[in-house]
Amino acid sequence: MIFRKILTSLIVFGFAAEVWSHVEIEAEDYFFPLEPVINFCKMSEQCQHDFVPICGQDSLGITRMFNDNCDLYEYNCDEKKQYRHAKMDVCKYEAAAAERTFNE
After folding, report:
1. CATH of the domain at 42
2. Which ranges carry the Kazal-like domain (predicted)?
């Protein structure tokens, strides 16, 4: 009887471990957990492009250059990301690469 309970428990734990090992937790699920959810899709629909380049940064510190605020909103909407406007100094490497490409 005890052997049967131990065997059943091991089987249950084995299945639980197998299921848990296949659970993928994406970083996007934990972006800005204390901030309200922003509807970037709605913001991108109402936005007027001004083509003033901006720097965007996500909660992991990944930076990216955008054509303007509307481009940032559209990218967040399409890619399910949470980039926020950051100082241009943060994107100094991306800005330098864009300038080299523009000048060539």
Report:
1. 3.30.60.30
2. 35-93
